[in-house]
Amino acid sequence: MKTPLFLPFTQEILPVPQTGEHLIAYGLQEVPETGWQPHLEIIQPWRPDYLKLSQAGFNTLPQVQEGQTYDGGLLLLDKHRKRNENRLLHLLMAVKAGGRVVVCGDKVSGAASLRKWAGQFVPAADSLSKNHAIVFWLRVPEKLDKSILAQRQNTGTRIDNRFETLPGMFSHGRIDTGSALLTRFMPDILEGAVADFGAGWGYLSACALENCPDITALDLYEADYDALQVARRNLANIPSSVLPGFHWQDLTREQPHQCYDTIISNPPFHEGRAADVSLGQAFIRCAARALKPNGKLLLVANRHLPYETILADCFRHSEHLAQENGFKIILAQP
Fold this sequence. Notes:
The model has no long low-confidence stretch (mean pLDDT 95). Helices cover 28% and strands 31% of the residues. The chain has two domains: 4-152, Rossmann fold (3-Layer(aba) Sandwich), CATH 3.40.50; 157-333, Rossmann fold (3-Layer(aba) Sandwich). The radius of gyration is 22 Å and the shape is elongated. The longest helix has 14 residues, at 81-94. It has 334 residues and is α/β, with parallel strands linked by helices. The strands form four sheets. It has a seven-stranded mixed sheet with strand order 3-2-1-4-5-7-6, with helices on both faces. A seven-stranded mixed sheet has the order 12-11-10-13-16-18-17, with helices on both faces.
């Protein structure tokens, strides 16, 4: 289903961009109509959507270009309230005075409450509803104290005064219970060239650098560009002779370019709001192809996820090392 985000333009409530006008867009997952191609700079840190949009010919970037200004802005909301707020605040700072910011979301993404929240800075000019979604738009005023907007941006949550995490990331503000369980088994198993599949903000890799003396190389693979940049910062101050590599890749579609002695992973099992066991299965297939002949996959998963069949198909041997607190630790060898 096409997003109602563009509805105010198709219904001619708002004027479509004119030649030379450029809008910045957050949150787009589906490819817009081709007429928008010359006008959009799409910010999409999620690798699968980035590839889809860029391959369709749209100017797509994984992160904003600081200091750029735009004639307008678009925001498609997701389920992460603080990230939505941050993006809206950035649009209000980046869009020129007189430009419009158009926001779209449903009840789950909190569109109505975000509209009310935004009213403390700029009142909504108008809105419309369709298919359980709300679209509202704001006009950036001539006088807007952008220093106040900058102060209101959520800069994330630090864990143990050392790990940075940002809204919208997996395990924001906390160490995932399954990942913590996995780290107990890493020192005895990790050796040689190691890869972290679905590295997130870098917790498993940080523990590997600190507690696994037999590793000689470490590569982090992550589809969320923002999380990968946070992982880079989280690992920067760990004293180690191993220099980590950081790879923005969608492992369900893009295979690593080398093979490893050990792979660690806490694979994702959600696509948006829906559980999707095929994501973890794709990670397992990818790991089987990326391991050296005598390599090892050390995996943590929710206990209910049915990975045993795919493990039996892809690996010569697999075993459960532990089952605790709703998680299972699996060791597999090709």
